[in-house]
């Protein structure tokens, strides 16, 4: 049994605290906007990658929104998320139209 004076107990506590802190820091970091393909030249694997990148971005952005206490940063993130979603949807529609034609 480890007591609070045992060196291993201190190390374990430090690791747990650092893990929790790093998770919070990561959650409060703004995600990078994913790179979207050109609908005029994109191939299916690029579109699938873009879809996955946008999903990951949205997930990270939601974590940021849950974490941030700054209204300006929150609103800016929401605006950016709407732009990314709109851009991606436009690309998907153009890609599907190109594939159908």
| Principal-axes shape call | elongated
Enumerate the spans where pLDDT stays under 50 for 5 or more consecutive residues.
8-25
Which structural class matches the secondary elements? mainly alpha
Q: What share of residues is helical?
A: over 70%
Biggest beta sheet summary: none
CA gyration radius, whole angstroms? 21 Å
**What order do the SSEs take from the amino end to the carboxyl end, as H and E?**
HHH
Tell me the strand percentage band: under 5%
Write down the overall mean pLDDT.
83
Number of helices: 3
Distance between the termini: 70 Å
**What is the total domain count?**
2
**β-strand number:** 0
Polypeptide structure, described:
- It is a single chain.
- This protein has 101 residues and is an all-alpha fold.
- It folds into two domains: 1-29; 31-100.
- The protein contains three helices and no strands.
- The chain is elongated.
TL;DR of this structure?
By secondary structure, the chain is an all-alpha fold. The chain is 74% helix and 0% strand.
Topology:
Layout: H1 7-27, H2 44-67, H3 71-100
Helix pairs in contact: 2-3
Which structural traits does this protein have?
0% strand; mainly alpha; elongated; 3 helices; 101 residues
